[in-house]
Amino acid sequence: MSMVEEDLVALYDKAPLDARYWVSITLFIAVLIFDYFDFFLVGFLVAALVQQWHLTFGQSSIMLLSGGVGAIFGALIWGGLADRWGRKPLTVIAVAICAVSAGSISIISDGAWVQFSLLRFLVGFGIGAAGAVLAPWTVEYTPTRHRTILSSATLIPVSFGILAAALAATTLMPVLGWRGLAGLGFLPLLPGLLIAVVVPESVRWLVLHGRTSEASSIICGALNLSPADLPKSAYTGTAASMAPAKSSSFGDLLALPRAFWLTVLVWFAASTANYGVFLWGPTIVALLMGLTPAEAAHLFVFVSLTGIAGRTMFAILPHWLGRRRCGEIMGYCTAVALGAAALFYDRSLLGYSAFIVILIPAALFFDGGFSNLVPHAAEIFPVRMNARGTALAQAANGFGKIAGPLCLALIAGTSNLITPKATIDALTPAFLFLAGCGLVVGLAYTFLGIETHGRPLVLEREDRSDATASALKVRETVG
Q1: Are 38 and 188 a contacting pair, CB within 8 Å?
Q2: In whole angstroms, what is the distance from residue 161 CA to residue 24 CA?
């Protein structure tokens, strides 16, 4: 890596967290909240349309699942494009795709479930695309000394997007109707447009691609310097004097097998465990305690709130303990808690079913741990490929959400592979399976974990020297 690159990135890492930084991070968070609002709103919309449109089980299932499938494609496609074309334009386009598609559902014809499903596919595509770019952009934008805690903290408010969808459906559906509720899908356009105007491109990505003149301009703004004040060695580099990084593919991720398999195993297993709990949990609570589904769902709100507390906890802990150790805590504690829920579900604790009493603190780990997972997926890969690394994580996440219901259906012995019916007889083997997924997360971090806390991101140019290539190999095996 040239001295020009090292100097520019080192200078940028000294920048204070100014007003522009905080406005930018706030916009990133707003996009995530609004996008998740759009994504989870579909369940309430479909519930309202089942009778109005006389939907069959198959039609409603396609309407519900299309967004998840779209998210996988969006992440994989946008991850590759963002590494090639930059973080900023790809984020703005992804947000626009999500918002326009979500809002357009409000104007389709009655009974047009195929159009609904296609638009939901595009909503999921946009959310998966935005997720694949925003995490790398956040970790690249934040100085190394603050990166661990701040990049994790951006994940805390995401849960409020899910909560907002539930509250909007409860309070606004009677007033606005399902079309008015769907029209709220246009809301992400506002933060998307503001990102286009306010937020600078990633300095690390610009330097990597030889666009050091643009990077120098951003650094001057961050440090409140004039171009003449920058050290000569840092300012003389220009895009013309440095060869841009060559085009790349997802195959490059396999050159870092430890990071590749850590990402796949952790995200697939964590997603399967998390989605399995939220898929079966309310029904099992209703069966165990003799509650109506609505009463069980209300009780399960405490599990969701604990998950938010867990995301806060896992935003702070990695700054003290490191990413790898926190990944182990998430995995092993998930395994113990879900295993206990499986084995002691028929006991009583504090006057309630032991099952729900155990799940409430368990959410600190199986849900809260994602605050540590999301930025880590971007940090363990070099900047040249970290959007693709994040896309790999999001794809594994999507497949986990699909595989989870399939595995639970096989355990329950049901033919319904989309929303398998929870039964008491299937509870113990199902939750032991989910506990096993938590164990996979813990073991993956123990044997494959890569520590990134406090360590600068590596750019990894295509034309890097042999010494730099060796350094990257050492970095991959650290920990």
Answers
A1: yes
A2: 19
Cα separation, 228 vs 284, in Å, equals 67
- pTM of the predicted structure, to 2 decimals: 0.86
Is 251-448 assigned to CATH 2.10.109.10?
A: no
Please, are residues 46 and 96 in contact by the beta-carbon 8 Å criterion?
Answer: no
Residue 417 confidence (pLDDT): 59
Residues of the chain with pLDDT under 70: 1-6, 232-248, 293-294, 297, 414-422, 460-479
AA identity, residue 331: G
- pLDDT for 149 equals 96
Q: Under CATH, what is the fold of the domain 3-239?
A: Growth Hormone; Chain: A; (1.20.1250)
Tokens of 131: 């997720």
Q: CA-based angle 151:156:162, to the nearest 5?
A: 135
pLDDT of residue 416: 62
Q: Hey, is 237 helix, strand or coil?
A: coil
DSSP 227: G
Judge contact between 173 and 44, C-beta under 8 A.
yes
CB 426 within 8 A of CB 294: no
Q: Is residue 453 classed as helix, strand or coil in its secondary structure?
A: coil
Question: Tokens in use for 320?
Answer: 């003290």
The answer to whether residues 320 and 312 touch, using CB atoms and an 8 Å cutoff, is no
398-428: pLDDT as tens digits: 888 878 777 877 887 766 655 666 677 788 9
φ, ψ dihedrals at 351, nearest 5°:
85, 5
Residues near 87 by beta carbon (within 8 Å), at least 6 away in sequence? 133, 136, 137, 140, 201, 202, 205, 387
Predicted pLDDT at 247:
56
Q: How far apart are CA 65 and CA 77, in angstroms?
A: 19
pLDDT of residue 466: 40
Quote the tokens at residue 153: 């903290």
Nearest Cα residue to 445 out of 479, 473, 400? 479
**Pair 60, 361: CB distance under 8 Å:** no
Indicate where the chain has its CATH 1.20.1250.20 domain(s): 3-239, 251-448
Which one-letter DSSP state was computed for residue 86? -
* Longest alpha-carbon distance in the chain: 74
